[in-house]
Specification:
The structure holds two protein chains of two kinds.
Chain A: H1 2-29, H2 36-60, H3 69-89, H4 95-107, H5 110-114, H6 126-161, H7 166-170, H8 174-206, H9 214-234, H10 240-264
Chain B: E1 10-16, H1 22-27, H2 32-45, E2 50-55, E3 59-65, H3 69-84, E4 96-99, H4 100-112, H5 123-138, H6 143-162, H7 172-183, E5 192-195, H8 199-210, E6 216-219, H9 223-233, E7 236-237, H10 244-249, E8 252-255, H11 266-275, E9 281-285, E10 302-306, H12 307-370, H13 376-407, H14 412-422, H15 429-443
Parallel strand pairs in B: 5-6, 5-8, 6-7, 8-9, 9-10
Antiparallel strand pairs in B: 1-3, 1-4, 2-3
Helix pairs in contact in B: 2-5, 4-6, 4-12, 5-6, 6-12, 6-15, 7-8, 12-13, 12-14
Classes of the chains: A mainly alpha, B alpha/beta.
Chain lengths: 271, 444
């Protein structure tokens, strides 16, 4: 099991590295078109990554969402959300950054491959597994949204100062960047909605006092915050720099509150 | 029958933007039908075996294969004088000519865009292909011209693929459009406003229309001129003295008037931008003095690109292309050398093939002459013996001819002497020509 796990771990790292190099070459050369090989490369990446996580789950005897294995799930989330946006907007300019991030995140799960944790009761529940997975992908969506926001501000500055270097040249246009910023927030919001819904159903079934749990309160607050941001976009017509500013503010709150809650508890208080 | 490839028979005669004034370039401009007739006359009335004519706004060039390359020069100039009804004697110095390897290099430089007015431009390659196919389909090319052109196209393709000679815009209009494309993903859906219907504004507006802009409004101090341009492009006209409503609608503004003061003032733009919400406005100011108040630069969501910013990018890109041009020159040198060596080896192969065919014919003739005197099994031995004998005799000769071709590409005199001595008629076409023609058809 360990040998196949290590092989899969290395294979996943390798495909992320290849994808990152591929994106980097395209970034430098200014190639934008998505071709058949890109789809094939992505399919292989995701297939290998899922196979690795399944094998890791079998080795753990539970969903591998604790300790270092969490990073590999995050890597998959980053790559997945980015690929959704890449397909939607047909632009590959930012892939190098997200796949490099996914590569690093996956590498960080190495200790989790070597040392398996004690099985955790909650992680053996499949509903909780989907809930946790959806929550991770939700936060990944917000992280990607924030990164697009930063890209937007950087390109905005370059255009304003009329000094358009390689970075600004290769980035998607400004009006696409803010759309990618809000769309990734929407993807994150959708995943978080699923996570909260499942969490609610699970807590009712387990009959636990979830209302006082800081993690639940924080997640609900984040959900509400991003809900308001999306409302602002579609009801009040927020757009451009203002929308990006708001989404960055949302992410700052999310980041700080997540860090605070993580400092207090790793798991829910009722576990 | 192509005989041997004779590089020294290749001649290029032409004029371009560096050697000839515009008036001469205009006088020697041929449309495709006129060019076809000129090429036909050149083949019929001069010593040209093959000829390709290239005509663009910056150059007119003829690529000729002729056994008398020096006399063909005068014949072509005479032909030009007669066809275009112009006295070219004052312009003799405007004509340049290259022959042999220098001609191949020049052809590759032209195809790669290194010799163009705008270094690295792509249009020239397309024009060269059209010129070549015009000659090819008219039956005015020779197999060697086909070979040289195909190689030049291949080198030009590599130059654009392996270097950055074609990267970065170097005209103000295209840089302006590229700035706008950094702002808007889909330029075609963005309404544009052109303020000032002069030549400069017209250029950028034209570039915007080429980029797909569908909605264009024109404002000009003289409304008649605005209406004239609007009719030409299917655009709308707006009141020059009341620009604010048009600025509210437009996402792209091109300003190019001769006004000595700002046409779009900072307070006016502030008001407009406040009403636009967070909608970006990309403004191109091509005027000197500037038509967009420099103080407007600080307004959020307004991106102003003045002529200085655009020219700065143009100059930067030009410098980059000049650096890349040096890489392309090195590539051309290496590839042309390889090509010359390769075509010399084809000549050696053709001579060897002709020699072997000739000797085999003699062998067959002699065998059938004396073969009757032998029994059947003796006849087979005789056949084997003569074949083996000739192979052994020819082996060293073949090897030496090949190494001679490798040592130097200028062995035609030796090859010719050998051909005369053995009464050979070598033909390089046998292996290479059909392939070249089919390749060229693929390229169309």
């Amino acid at each position: 099991m360990t040998a196949s796990l290590i092989t899969l771990y290395a294979a996943v790292a390798l495909v992320y590295l290849v994808a990152t190099i591929h994106y980097a070459v395209e970034f430098v050369r200014g190639l934008e078109r998505i071709v058949f090989w890109d789809h094939l490369e992505r399919t292989i990446t995701f297939a290998l990554h899922v196979a690795f996580l399944l094998t890791l789950g079998r080795a753990y005897g539970e969903l591998p969402l604790v300790q270092y294995s969490f990073f590999s799930f995050t890597a998959l989330g980053v790559a997945l959300v980015h690929t959704i946006l890449e397909q939607r907007f047909q632009t590959r300019g930012t892939g190098v950054f997200f796949f490099a991030l996914a590569f690093v995140l996956h590498l960080m799960c190495w200790p989790g491959v070597l040392h398996h944790p004690e099985p955790h009761r909650l992680l053996q529940n499949p509903v909780y597994g989907v809930h946790a997975l959806a929550a991770i992908f939700g936060y990944v969506g917000f992280l990607i949204s924030a990164l697009y926001g930063l890209f937007y501000l950087s390109v905005y500055r370059s255009l304003k100062s009329r000094r358009i270097g390689l970075f600004a040249t290769r980035m998607p246009p400004l009006d696409l960047l803010w759309k990618m910023n809000i769309d990734s927030a929407i993807v994150g919001f959708a995943f978080l909605t699923v996570a909260l819904g499942l969490g609610l159903a699970l807590s009712v079934r387990l009959n636990v006092a979830y209302v006082n749990d800081p993690k639940v309160v924080q997640s609900c607050a984040v959900w509400l915050l991003y809900g308001l941001l999306i409302l602002g976009r579609f009801v009040l017509g927020w757009r451009g720099r203002f929308l990006v500013g708001m989404s960055l503010a949302c992410f700052a709150v999310t980041l700080l509150s997540t860090m605070l809650v993580a400092y207090l508890h790793t798991f829910h208080t009722f576990v | 029958m192509a005989g041997l490839y004779r590089m020294e028979r290749l001649l290029i005669l032409g004029i371009n933007h560096t050697t000839a004034p515009l008036a001469l370039r205009e006088a020697l401009y041929f449309d495709s039908e006129a060019m076809r007739l000129f090429l036909r006359d050149a083949i019929e009335k001069t010593a040209a075996e093959g000829v390709v004519g290239l005509c663009t706004c910056n150059r007119t060039e003829f690529y000729v294969m002729s056994p008398q390359p020096q006399t063909i020069k005068a014949a072509l100039i005479d032909g030009l004088e007669k066809t275009r009804r112009i006295d070219l004697s004052p312009y003799r110095k405007s004509f340049y000519s290259y022959s042999g390897e220098a001609a191949i290099k020049h052809l590759c430089r032209v195809a790669s865009g290194v010799d163009s007015m705008v270094i690295g431009e792509d249009q020239i390659l397309k024009q060269m292909r059209q010129a070549y196919h015009l000659a090819l389909h008219g039956g005015f090319t020779t197999s060697y011209l086909n070979l040289v052109f195909e190689r030049a196209f291949m080198i030009a393709k590599r130059a654009r693929h392996e270097t950055r000679i074609s990267e970065g815009n170097i005209s103000v209009a295209s840089v302006a459009v590229s700035f706008i494309k950094h702002t808007f993903a889909d330029v075609s859906s963005r309404p544009a406003l052109l303020i000032g219907a002069g030549e400069t504004g017209e250029l950028v507006a034209h570039a915007l229309l080429d980029a797909g802009v569908k909605s264009l409004a024109i404002a000009n101090r003289t409304p008649e001129r605005a209406r004239e341009l609007a009719e030409k492009w299917g655009a709308a006209t707006v009141d020059f003295d009341n620009l604010e409503p048009a600025l509210l609608k437009a996402d792209i503004v091109v300003c190019a008037t001769g006004s000595p003061t700002a046409v779009l003032t900072a307070p006016m733009l502030k008001r407009v931008m406040a009403q636009r919400g967070e909608r970006i406005l990309a403004a191109i100011d091509l005027s000197v003095p500037r038509n967009i108040d420099p103080a407007a630069d600080k307004i959020d969501q307004l991106f102003v690109y003045d002529i200085e910013a655009l020219q700065e990018v143009c100059e930067k890109n030009k410098t980059k292309r000049q650096v890349e041009a040096r890489k392309v020159e090195a590539l051309i040198d290496a590839e042309v050398r390889r090509f010359v060596e390769w075509s010399a080896s084809l000549n050696a192969d053709a001579v060897i093939r002709a020699m072997r065919n000739r000797i085999e014919t003699i062998r067959q003739r002699e065998i059938s002459r004396y073969g009757k005197a032998f029994h059947e099994h003796e006849f087979e031995n005789l056949d084997r013996f003569t074949r083996s004998l000739l192979n052994k005799v020819l082996h060293d000769l073949t090897a030496n001819l090949k190494s001679m071709a490798r040592e130097s590409d200028d062995r035609l005199m030796e090859f010719d002497a050998l051909c005369r001595a053995l009464n050979l008629k070598p033909d390089v076409d046998v292996e290479s020509d059909s392939k070249i023609t089919s390749d060229s058809d693929d390229e169309i």
